[in-house]
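The instructor's notes for this session suggest beginning with a concrete chain rather than abstract definitions. Hand out the sequence below and ask the class to guess, before any prediction is shown, which regions might be ordered.
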Amino acid sequence: MAVRVKPITLWRAEVDNQPGALARTLEPLAAARANLQVVMGYRLPGDRGRAAIEVAPVAGRAAAAAQSAGLQAATLAALLVEGDNRPGLGHAMAKALGDAGINIDFLLGQVSGARHTTVIGFDTREEADRAVPLIKRAAAGPRRPAARKAARKSARGRKGARKGRRR
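After discussion, reveal the predicted structure:
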């Protein structure tokens, strides 16, 4: 299963938690034709009157638009993970990171069709860098020994041959 893992910079703003706050923040980015892959909005814990908005990627002309909307590049290290989905993938990635002693600051995941997109935040850039090969291995799934693969393929071929003879 193909997976792509790349560092991203989230741009973040804290805003008043009120109707239209998200639209006002996104308006300059839309006008700059920013092609956002990640948009998160959430109320701040413990403060019903404040919310955070985070977006990515922001580059080129979109950077000036993001700044005009009150967004700033966040210092938190984050990775964007995209690839083929499979049952248990989230657990496999979380286990690989946990077993390596890497803490997850936040995780946002979604599946559309057969593809998944996940954004994972880390304490430091070093932890994010350490996480990349672990996530790739976890996303690849368990490896089957070549002999088992060949045996399964051979068995499938024999079943098909038997079916054809019975007809």
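Then share the key points. The chain has a mean pLDDT of 89. The chain has one domain: 3-140.
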